[in-house]
Amino acid sequence: MIVAAKGAAEAIAELCHLSDEDRARERSAADEMAREGMRVLGMAKASVPVDSARPDTPRGFQFEYLGLIGIADLLRPAVPEAVKECQTAGIRVVMITGDYPQTACAIAFSANLKAGDVVTGSDLE
User: Fold this and answer.
1) Which segments of the chain belong to CATH 3.40.1110.10?
2) Are strands 38-47 and 2-7 parallel, antiparallel or unpaired?
3) Is the dihedral of CA 124, 28, 5, 11 positive or negative?
4) Which of 62-66, 78-82, 99-103, 109-113 has the least mean pLDDT?
5) Which CATH number applies to 2-72: 1.10.3430.10, 3.40.1110.10, 3.90.550.10, 3.30.505.10?
6) ∠ CA 123-30-76 to the nearest 5 degrees?
7) Would you say 67 and 30 are in contact if contact means Cβ atoms under 8 Å apart?
8) How far is Cα 42 from Cα 45, in angstroms, rounded to an integer?
9) What angle do CA 5, 14, 67 make, to 5 degrees?
10) Angle 30-101-3 from CA coordinates, rounded to 5°
């Protein structure tokens, strides 16, 4: 049986027990993809005999790191102009997203939003 995992690049790197050097390389690649506006997911797999006992948590599998997938989710063509109209009318426009910070910055730039403070979920905690 093949077990697949996908998720935030750093979470998949942890799940696969990557070395610090490999994590740094993975983080650099994810950052580069995110700066291009891609949503980045890490991918991993594990093989388990069908008749064997299954671990209680995903951390119990011996995952093999497969790499990163970048997904382009382009803005609708009307968004940049709509943002400009709001700003001209004195409306402060902000973007809230669960995307990777570099992805959020690239998308904000495409939408005519000025790069400002980026606050992550861990920052809010």
Assistant:
1) 2-72
2) antiparallel
3) negative
4) 99-103
5) 3.40.1110.10
6) 85
7) no
8) 11
9) 55
10) 45
Instruction: Name the strand (E) or helix (H) holding 95.
Output: none
Closest CA to 12 of 39, 40, 44: 44
In this predicted structure, what is the pLDDT of residue 114? 78
**pTM of the model as a whole:** 0.69
Question: What residues does 3 pair with on adjacent strands?
Answer: 46
The two tokens of residue 69 are 């997938």
Residues whose CB is less than 8 angstroms from the CB of residue 39 and which lie 6 or more positions away in sequence, other chains included: 70, 71, 72, 73, 99, 100, 103
Contact yes or no for 72/98 (Cβ under 8 A):
no
Helix (H) or strand (E) holding 83: helix 79-88
Neighbours of 89 (CB within 10 A): 7
